[in-house]
Amino acid sequence: MNKTVKKIGLILIAIIILPAAFFTINELTSLSENEKVIEKIYSDQLEAILFSVNQYSEDVASSWAIKIDDLLDELAKVDEIQSGRMVDSLFNDLPSLQGFFVADSILDEKIDFFLFGELEYNKNADYDTLNTAIKNLLKENSQVVTRLFTYKRAGYRKIEPVNYEIKNQNSVLMFIDATPSGTNKITGILINPNEFIYRILSPKIQEIAEMEFVISVFNRDRNFQYNSTKDYDSTKVQQERPLWIFPNYKVGISLVGSTIEDLVKDRVVSNIILISLLTLILIAGVYIVYRNVKREVEIAQIKSDFISNVSHELRTPLSLISMFAETLEMGRAKTEEKKREYYSIISREANRLGRIVNTILNFSKMEAGKRKYHFEENDLNIVIAKVFENYSFHLKNIGFDFNYYPSENLPSINIDEEAVSEAVINLIDNAVKYSPDKKQIEIKTGIDNTFAYVDVMDKGIGISHEDQRNVFDKFFRVSSALVHDTKGTGLGLSIVKYVMDAHGGKVRLRSKVGAGSSFKLMFPVINRKN
Description:
The protein is of the alpha+beta class. It is built from 12 helices and 16 strands. The protein is rod-shaped and about 165 Å long.
């Protein structure tokens, strides 16, 4: 049986645990790849948001370039006073625009420029200084200018930022535009980056960020920072890109509450926890299945032993009855004394056979819940005295020291006398079977709190602590050499337990290997109300 159970256990491990372990290991090894995918998805999402901020800022700058182009075309058609009003109106419409200039080429000596709030059209005391600054800008960014002319000849106007600052740290954007006469000229826009970010870019940033992201625009060299959320440290941004129209400024983005690394770690932890729980559930399932299968195998083995034992128990009295009946029938018993002896053996074996059959039938009824009990108020001392009287002579003849110690003033209890007698007889039979050396049996009655009890004690082989939990299970027999040499049905103690359950009582077992056993049957006393 043990080999069969072990094989079943190994098969269950192979079927359930090994696939679970493979899945767990595979999931753990693929976590890093999965997290890279998640990180890339988040990174792409943040990149798309940064792109939208940059695209918006460039679109605004392009719209300003168109308005400046239109203004320059109109300035050629009006007088100086009207031109000044139109320039002022443009500056009022475009906050953070600080000025613009127009040059024919990189080597242009006379550059037209317009500054917000400081110059009238072509009139400024600081003209020479500004003129020199713009000429230096064009020379230092000649490659940018050449590239812009190339785009223009291809039919595409592009705005390019240049790394040059004019007047109060203004950034410069340049593009090429054609005049009404068809000549291409270099146009530059002077923008205050800080003003542009606060006035133009911030509403768009707030719209994009909402409550899910923190978007920052910063220039650490100038100690400038704008955040969609107040009091945010720009050093904590998760991704940052240069702002296209202001290369010295950067736009950064972060997730609200958790970083991408935090999200990845949380997912790793969640996956590990789920995998661990799944593994534990599978292990628990395997354990439950294994335990049930083991129990079923044990029951099957116990049933097989039961059939074998019962067959032997039935065969022995039947053989004796048949043999002595045949001897009497053939007239081989010569004397009356021999006849009486043979009749006595036949009677004893018939009673033995009847007890075996009754035991099996009673157990079958109890297990099916069909046994009927007839409860009556009775004196436990009287019931046990009858059992003692019936068994006393027989036990003393086979060498047992059999004693009964009734308790005085024992309260009455409601019991089925036949069932209680059967339970006590089963305990006595067990004591006889498993007391090969010290043949001593004692029966005591007494009161224990609210229970009246009968205690059957022997000095037999005893029961191990391990087996005590199972002795009341049907067909169970203690695994020892003496038990297997002693035949029995394995139903006696199960019947005792059924009887006590039917009486609302309990069985208390005390036993030690080699020192005997004590089975105390405890019955609830009648609660009499005054």
